[in-house]
Design a protein that fits this description.
Blueprint (H helix, E strand, L loop, with lengths): L1 H9 L2 H18 L2 E6 L5 E7 L3 E2 L8 E6 L4 E6 L3 E6 L4 E7 L5 E6 L5 E6 L3 E6 L8 E4 L5 E6 L5 E6 L3 E6 L5 E6 L5 E6 L5 E6 L4 E5 L4 E5 L7 E6 L5 E6 L1 E2 L2 E2 L1 E6 L6 E6 L5 E6 L9 E6 L3 E6 L5 E6 L6 E8 L2 E6 L4 E7 L5 E7 L1
InterPro entries: WD40/YVTN_repeat-like_dom_sf (IPR015943), WD40_PAC1 (IPR020472), WD40_repeat_CS (IPR019775), WD40_repeat_dom_sf (IPR036322), WD40_rpt (IPR001680), WDR31 (IPR040066)
Organism: Myotis myotis (Greater mouse-eared bat)
Keywords: Repeat, WD repeat
């Protein structure tokens, strides 16, 4: 201790202050975001600040609107830079860039166990791409009068369903690019589409605050779920096809929830997940391997990703991606990873950690 005291005595006050500030500045630069751990009764138990993560070369030069997992290594994303990007999120490398759209990318849908995928845009076009083919679209689908805001591929990969703000849904033959069916419902501004696994049904979210279930055999409405209080921004179906999720717009905690619905005979509302303070933009069912109970995840314009107990509606964990701006899209990468797109900081790679309970941490951004 004596040498240290002497050193401090000899050092000018200015130098001590500068060293202290430099040390604090270095520390603060690593405190990228905050996380909150919840008890089962939804009371915040502890606040954790996480530190370092990898910053890979960015996939996009502007806001990322959507991200989807192509397989356990690759994701496909699109945004305001009008470019579709295939990215290896495990190595941090761009695999390929695809250009052809004249406006923002709004939606992306992938073919199951395939290198092919689709993108929709504000230019009213849908394009089909091949990861190992040309950087030009393999097929184009043109038929909407306004921005395309919904995109879903059938389980057998032979049909594509698209939806738009022009109130219409269109069913396409993937092989020929030809329109098979077209349906229109007044004021039905489509926000998202999702195909039910192993079924001929397509789930649709709408700005008219409803969730519709369409039968692709003739493209007729098979069921309309009870209307919510706010615009439904997104929908997702569980792997077994028994349940579905929808998300609500909102502000200041009004709305801002996710809702679990039964897709079987009763088609009732099962549970609601409330805790976000702005529009919930995306929701996903998480793999059962992640936790002892079934869990879901939501992302919101409030910069937060939340993990919920699917059965009880209890929030298990909250990750705040400070400085990211609104979170726009969420996708399951593999059994322990999530991909989250944002307005300001590209795509975030999040990992579920079981070392001290169920936690979610940011490990990379690109």
């Amino acid at each position: 201790m004596l040498p240290l005291r002497c050193h401090l005595k000899r050092a000018p006050p200015q130098k001590i202050l500068c060293r202290f500030c430099a040390m604090m500045g270095k520390l603060q630069s690593k405190l990228k975001h905050s996380t909150y751990k919840y008890r089962p009764d939804a009371i915040i138990e502890e606040r954790i600040q996480t530190t370092a993560f990898h910053e890979y070369s960015p996939a996009h030069v502007d806001t990322v609107s959507v991200v989807a997992a192509l397989n356990s290594d690759l994701c496909v994303s699109g945004g305001k830079d009008k470019t579709v990007v295939a990215y290896n999120w495990k190595t941090g490398n761009v695999v390929k860039r695809f250009r052809g759209h004249e406006h923002d990318i709004t939606k992306i849908a992938c073919l199951h166990k395939s290198n092919q995928f689709f993108s929709a845009s504000r230019d009213r076009m849908v394009m089909m791409w091949d990861l190992h083919g040309s950087s030009q679209p393999r097929q184009q689908f043109s038929g909407h009068a306004m921005v395309v805001t919904g995109l879903a591929v059938s389980p057998d990969s032979t049909q594509l369903c698209t939806g738009s703000r022009d109130n219409t849904l269109v069913l396409w033959d993937v092989g020929t690019g030809q329109c098979v069916e077209r349906a229109s419902v007044s004021r039905n501004l489509v926000t998202h589409l999702c195909w039910v696994p192993r079924e001929p049904y397509v789930l649709q979210a709408s700005e008219d605050k409803t969730i519709r279930l369409w039968d692709s055999r003739g493209l007729q409405v098979a069921h309309i779920f009870p209307a919510k209080q706010h615009i439904q921004t997104y929908c997702e179906v569980s792997e077994d096809g028994h349940r579905c999720l929808s998300c609500s717009s909102g502000f200041g905690g009004e709305g801002c929830e996710a809702t679990l619905w039964d897709l079987r005979q009763t088609r009732d509302r099962i549970c609601e997940y409330k805790g976000h303070f702005q529009t919930v933009a995306s929701c996903v069912f998480l793999p059962r391997a992640l936790a002892l109970m079934p869990v879901i995840a939501t992302s919101s314009h409030d910069c937060k990703v939340k993990i919920w107990n699917q059965d009880t509606g209890a929030c298990l964990f909250t990750l705040s991606l400070d400085g990211s701006g609104p979170l726009t899209s969420l996708a399951v990468g593999d059994t322990i990873s999530l991909l989250c797109a944002s307005f300001r900081r590209g795509i975030h790679l999040l990992r579920v950690d079981h070392s001290s309970g169920l936690e979610l941490r940011e490990v990379a951004v690109f």
